[in-house]
């Protein structure tokens, strides 16, 4: 019997690699002779760098850049096993988890450090970039990133504008003439899991601003500022991109990267292709995937749904293990064999996070026992191909 374990991270508690290892430990403790493979997954957000670097036996490069609050931080970017492609994960540089709860306010956050990381990789000779956009704390339209890469944004007095979301309305002059010329030599590949435009009711400020700490009035201010600076940038570059799907990703970083000629693709597809997920699922009997929280949004292209669809195409049975299961998840029964929450008793969020590994292991053992009880019959029906 063959089982593929391809989870996303349980954000705030376990990485995708840790989730996969815990499920594997439970599976092998209960099912004798199981052929199991762990393929840590990500959708362009937190964990994408780790998944890609590990899958390709790449490396991490330490770097000191500006964090989301423009304070120096020590972080890293990755290089794939091809030794040619740099992976920059926004969540590692300008991530929401890096901002203390009391300081969450996208008027004050910046993507400047993301540009600094790209600049560092350029200086190391890299010209291929995969940029993972999920999990950001920013809403600056990519002004910080562009400024770090050499672009100029000035106010009425001709002074450089502080590259944060709250300063966008102050910009009156934009110059891309000083942009690092090496960017024209680069292949920019963006991993993204949202299709939102830059502005409006479905724009990044309205949809994602509140979870980054914005009040209703701040959402309006941010949206107005983005619309203003986007008009200046589009006039400067001679391109209209603010309405493109994904332009609103990562607080408008998607828009800035599109201006630089980046290609935008679904993060889950990128990770799956590089990790060879489809090849590994082919011939599997069961596929176990998971995420931190499952609800009606999971069916709109989130990573577990993507994995389950791939499993179905290859005749494997998909199971979902989730940190918690919310409203609307019942629609997923059309795709998954069953849905399982690791919460076996009432607990607080903090307790669930602190005990995520043991809770996951306990539930995984129950699932493993069910798989073991049905596995031999399932394998026979599939022609004993493993």
From TrEMBL:
The UniProt record lists the keyword Transmembrane = no
- Which keywords annotate this record? Kinase, Transferase
Show the Pfam families listed in the entry: Gly_kinase
Family to which the UniProt record says this protein belongs: Belongs to the glycerate kinase type-1 family.
Q: What is this protein called?
A: Glycerate kinase
Query: Could you tell me the Gene Ontology terms of the biological process aspect for this record?
Result: organic acid phosphorylation
Judging by the UniProt lineage, the source's domain of life is Bacteria
State any single GO MF term: glycerate kinase activity
Q: Which organism is it from?
A: Paludifilum halophilum
Annotated Gene3D superfamilies: Glycerate kinase, domain 1, Glycerate kinase, domain 2
């Amino acid at each position: 019997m063959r089982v593929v374990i391809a989870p996303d991270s349980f954000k705030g508690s376990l990485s995708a690699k840790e989730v996969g290892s815990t499920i594997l430990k439970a599976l092998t403790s209960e099912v004798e002779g199981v052929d199991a493979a762990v393929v840590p997954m990500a959708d362009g957000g937190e964990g994408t760098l780790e998944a890609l670097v590990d899958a390709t036996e790449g490396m991490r490069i330490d770097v000191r850049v500006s964090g989301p609050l423009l304070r120096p931080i020590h972080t890293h970017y990755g290089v794939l096993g091809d030794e040619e492609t740099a992976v920059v994960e926004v969540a590692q540089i300008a991530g929401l988890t890096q901002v203390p709860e009391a300081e969450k306010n996208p008027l004050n956050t910046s993507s400047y450090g993301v540009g600094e990381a790209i600049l560092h990789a350029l200086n190391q000779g890299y010209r291929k970039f995969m940029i993972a956009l999920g999990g950001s704390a920013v809403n600056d339209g990519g002004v910080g990133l562009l400024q770090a890469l050499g672009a100029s944004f000035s106010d009425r007095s001709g002074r450089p504008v502080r590259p944060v979301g709250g300063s966008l309305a102050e910009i009156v002059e934009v110059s891309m003439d000083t942009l690092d010329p090496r960017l024209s030599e680069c292949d920019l590949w963006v991993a993204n899991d949202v299709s939102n435009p830059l502005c409006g009711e479905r724009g990044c400020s309205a949809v994602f601003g509140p979870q980054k700490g914005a009040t209703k009035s701040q959402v309006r201010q941010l949206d107005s500022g983005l619309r203003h600076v986007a008009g200046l940038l589009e006039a400067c570059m001679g391109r209209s991109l603010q309405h493109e799907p994904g332009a609103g990703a990562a607080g408008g970083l998607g828009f800035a990267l599109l201006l630089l000629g980046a290609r935008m693709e679904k993060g889950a597809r990128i990770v799956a292709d590089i990790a060879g997920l489809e090849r590994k699922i082919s011939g599997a009997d069961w596929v176990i995937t998971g995420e931190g929280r499952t609800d009606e949004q999971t069916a709109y292209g989130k990573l577990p749904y993507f994995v389950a669809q791939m499993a179905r195409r290859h005749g494997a049975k998909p199971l979902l293990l989730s940190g918690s299961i919310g409203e609307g998840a019942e629609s997923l029964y059309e795709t998954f064999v069953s849905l399982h929450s690791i919460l076996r008793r009432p607990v607080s969020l903090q307790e669930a996070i602190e005990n995520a590994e043991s809770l996951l292991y306990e539930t995984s053992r129950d699932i493993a026992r069910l798989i073991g009880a049905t596995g031999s019959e399932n394998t026979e029906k599939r022609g004993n191909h493993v």
